[in-house]
Amino acid sequence: MTQATVRLTVAQALVRYLAALRAEVVQPDGKTEVLPYCGGVFAIFGHGNVAGLGEALESVKDQLPTFRAHNEQGMANAAVAFGKANFRQRMMAASSSIGPGATNMLTSAAMAHVARLPLLLLPGDVFVSRLPDPVLQQVEGFEQGDVSANDCFRPVTRYFDRITTPEQLLVALPRAIQVMTDPAQCGPVCLALPQDVQTFAWDWPESFFHPPLIRFRRPPAEARELDEAVQRLKTAKKPLLVAGGGVLYSQAWDALRDFAEAHGVPVAESQAGKGALPWDHPLNVGSIGVTGSTAANDLARDCDLVLAVGTRLQDFTTGSHALFSHADVLSLNVQPFDAGKKRGQPLVADARTGLRQLSTALPSWRADSAWTDRAQDLAASWVERVDVLTRHVPKDVRPYDAEVIGAVRESATDAGLDSARHDLVVCAAGTLPAELHKLWRSGLPGNYHMDYAYSTMGYEVAGGLGAKMARPEREVIVIVGDGSYMMLHAELATSVLLGRKIIIVLLDNRGYGCIERLQVKCGGASFNNMLDDCIPEGGAPSDIDFAMNARSLGAEAVHVKDVEELRREMVRARAATKSQMLVIDTTHHRTTADGGAWWEVAVPQVSARPGVTEAHAGYLQAKRRQRQ
Questions:
Q1: pTM here?
Q2: 499-511 residue pLDDT tens
Q3: Which parts of the sequence belong to the Thiamine pyrophosphate enzyme N-terminal TPP-binding domain (predicted)?
């Protein structure tokens, strides 16, 4: 029997397949919908993709939207944020020309790789025919003729392929989707598309364009590992559960709450896991680690077992492996690589399935009542302390991050909204991740959107755009420092162009204040971080009008004089329909001293500066607490 075929170019076949993909998506309210798996394609066209992929995308624009961006890294960051805000159940693609357009997306690929997030990269590539070599923007390999700039994507993607013949797409494209939808392997994929191959025609099987519905797997724990985990938990008197991003990606928040309540186990949250349990739940002891709350870190130092659920156990979570000094680690993770970290006991399974398996197997086990009572007391005290830190605004001094966070939160109350359930906050780098991890209140899973896996400076504005595209019903608030904003902010103009309103609150401390503090703490001199300290002979002081910059990109913007005005302007910004920028001058010298844990930053063994020598002695003393 002859198989029905349709004649299309490689590019046309690729976009037709993407447009046909559907996924079974669980929303935060528990409802299940069948939605397009690919939310669209960000594209900046050039000679490597405009004639082939560009023509194909135009032909399906009603089924697969194409979005114009202003910077390749920015658009790929937005695509990553879209996947994160959808709990990895949907993704977006990003297409560039060859050369600098492609390599601009390398940082985004690395960010998605570290954070285990889906991203489909479709960079143009050089001619497979080799006849016009070297083509404009081609990076030539003197020893390897089949290498191009796109090979740089190999170490920062989970799957890489170069499509050199049409029929290769029949295998490569479904395989790329398989990687992004696998709970353990999820990450960025790259299909490099030589510009001539994009235009090659072939007779494609019609069946190729009817892919099966994507349903996400929830692998259970293996019986032996489950039994070993159960036996270990039965001996625990003072357990602490650390919730990571895997709890959110598994939509395991109900299972997490049920487990904590049934067994009296306090829950601390990593940066990626924050929001897995509502901020005001009696067993939520707040953020863990270097940016952790007093409550969570006090318990971490005293617990006898850490149940790490869906976390990579990054150094900020573990205090560079010195925080859990008296506890064993039991890691429930769908990825064996992560489950085996810190020489812990692995339990390889989906977070939601694994938590329920554990709870079922432990019907009568509970943590010691004194431990549970202590955790609840600490949690309640921390809630009160956050109120003090975010609502007290001293006069006649520049505000710091906590006071700005409080004004943003309270503006929701002024507008008749519940900030914890309505606002989706986006951030990535500098001091703000520490302050937000401790002080932001999230009442819904996904309303805390932080890139602190790769901590990508410049992610914030583009990340806010991607989050808004994924969650248009939320007020997306980007909180960003001046240094990170200066790295990459062009997608503010894209948000205006696309009609996706975001609110940016920019804290201007005139430089890289976070790193300057670290520099001085390590005994160094303040050097090359704060703008006023970086003026060479013949130079001039930096005088950046961020509000004017935002207005030049099409947003509405104001520079507020203090926290009270910020709160009032936030109410106005919430009611607006166009993207907003609110700028406030802040200090980097004041931070929230409560909480925190040691973070290993290597200090020079010898130096002419006495401060460095002193800092190195303290560094060696702290390292003694590290588990080997």
A1: 0.97
A2: 999 999 999 999 9
A3: 42-137
